[in-house]
Amino acid sequence: MLNLQPANRKGLMRRRKEKTTIIIVNEQKNAIQPIEVPSKFVVNWKKYALAAVLVFFSMVTSIIYLTISRNELYESGQVLASQLEAVQSEMQEMATDTVKAEEPDRYAEIDNKLSTINKFLKARGLKPAFSDQKKKELTEEEIDNYYKEYLNKVIFNLAHTPIGFPYPGHITSTFGHRENPFTFSGGERHKGIDIKGNTGDPVRATAQGRVTFAGYRGGYGKCIVLKHANGFETLYGHLSRINVDEGDRVKVGELIGRIGSTGRSTGPHLHYEVHRNGKFVNPKGYLSLN
């Protein structure tokens, strides 16, 4: 145990209370109010200065470390963001590839139905609007436009191709060679079909087109000729009445005349012909889509 004598205790207390006066003099050698500081600060100033320097450098080092860490963290964030963008891009490509892979099944049913329509059109001398090979070279958006354009073409062909009966009656004479209906001997070429009906029954256009003839024509009697697209023409003969004029445009199913027995006829009926590129064709092939 430290045992201090009274005299020594007083000396220690005196040293602790010792102070040093610091006088600061300006350029005019005028003294400014002196400052008293504990003598131990003056005696140990080097230690305090060294401690201050160490604290300063510690703070600078900490700031530099934090700055470097922040930059590294920012760069890491940038790298991570770049990696996420790359992953997102790959996922989008995979999704696109999946859609493309599903496209054949997606359009298969539509293609089958359009192929059936193409078959009907081809049987009537019409070519398909597009080929499947062309579709394979298109993008998804272009494929949608492809089908829209294709369907518009199909609608146009169906509207301008003579399909169906101009009058829903019984066929009494077919296309081609037949016996002379007046002499019942010998033969003659029949250029269309005869459909039995009653005088005054309605006759309708089997396709959209323009009236190129409306009047009396020899053995056809009162007759109407319609010109359609794709090289088609239709003729309606032996009419009792004509309801259109030359130059008129008619729609599918529009009333154009009435059944009669004018011209070379044995009784009320409709003589119906279909022409394709200037040649007579059998109307029977156009009475239905089958």
Automatic annotation (TrEMBL):
<feature type="domain" description="M23ase beta-sheet core">
    <location>
        <begin position="189"/>
        <end position="283"/>
    </location>
</feature>
<feature type="transmembrane region" description="Helical">
    <location>
        <begin position="48"/>
        <end position="68"/>
    </location>
</feature>
<keyword id="KW-0812">Transmembrane</keyword>
<dbReference type="GO" id="GO:0004222">
    <property type="term" value="F:metalloendopeptidase activity"/>
</dbReference>
<keyword id="KW-0472">Membrane</keyword>
<dbReference type="InterPro" id="IPR050570">
    <property type="entry name" value="Cell_wall_metabolism_enzyme"/>
</dbReference>
<keyword id="KW-0732">Signal</keyword>
<dbReference type="InterPro" id="IPR011055">
    <property type="entry name" value="Dup_hybrid_motif"/>
</dbReference>
<dbReference type="Pfam" id="PF01551">
    <property type="entry name" value="Peptidase_M23"/>
</dbReference>
<dbReference type="InterPro" id="IPR016047">
    <property type="entry name" value="M23ase_b-sheet_dom"/>
</dbReference>
<protein>
    <recommendedName>
        <fullName>M23ase beta-sheet core domain-containing protein</fullName>
    </recommendedName>
</protein>
<keyword id="KW-1133">Transmembrane helix</keyword>
